[in-house]
Design goal:
The protein is mainly alpha-helical. It has one domain. It contains four helices and two strands. The protein has a two-stranded antiparallel sheet. It is elongated. 27% of the residues are buried.
Length: 173
């Protein structure tokens, strides 16, 4: 990266406060997590003992296991949200495509935090969708995640990352 020689310890440490819009975006991610948990809680008592636990690239299940695995997926979703949220508290430790200076640090940090915020939303709703579709497959009302699922998720994450990286390059001054 552009600022590897600079040293992360030399970067300004700035607390970036949440804006009202940030809270709205965080709520969107949390709602995705809650939807996943509610889907598991509602379906769990009537789910068959064995449900799809893994899907191939085509979106068709290729692994089956205990219905308890849905609780793991819901918990992992919450854990990843918390981990990404905690990580966003330390933007001075991230890698940036440009050198971080006193003049551009706040703008770069805001963009990096924005990228993580969007990724939190994408991950939360991706997991919620996977839980929902796993339940549907278990009940026989769906055949899988859908053939485009993997490609859409990968494209979404790549586009998000590239968008924010370009925004950071624009902030090099």
């Amino acid at each position: 990266m552009a600022d590897e020689k600079q040293g992360k310890a030399a970067r300004p440490v700035i607390k970036i406060p949440f804006t009202d819009t940030d809270y709205v975006f965080e709520a969107i991610a949390v709602i995705g997590i809650i939807c996943g948990i509610v889907a598991v809680a509602r379906a769990f008592p009537i789910l068959p003992a064995r449900i799809p636990t893994h899907f191939g690239a085509s979106g068709v299940p290729n692994g089956w296991g205990s219905k308890n695995s849905l609780w793991f997926v819901a918990g992992l979703n919450a854990f990843l949200y918390a981990a990404f949220l905690t990580l966003s508290l330390f933007p001075q430790t991230f890698n940036y495509p440009v050198k971080v200076t006193e003049e551009n640090a706040e703008r770069l940090y805001r963009r990096a935090i924005g990228m993580l915020r969007w990724l939190r939303i994408e991950v939360a709703w991706t997991f919620a969708f996977m839980i929902y579709r796993s339940v549907q497959v278990a009940f026989g009302s769906a055949k899988g995640l859908g053939g485009a699922f993997l490609y859409v998720v990968v494209a979404l994450v790549l586009v998000t990352t590239l968008y924010w990286a370009v925004e950071m390059v624009r902030e090099k001054g």
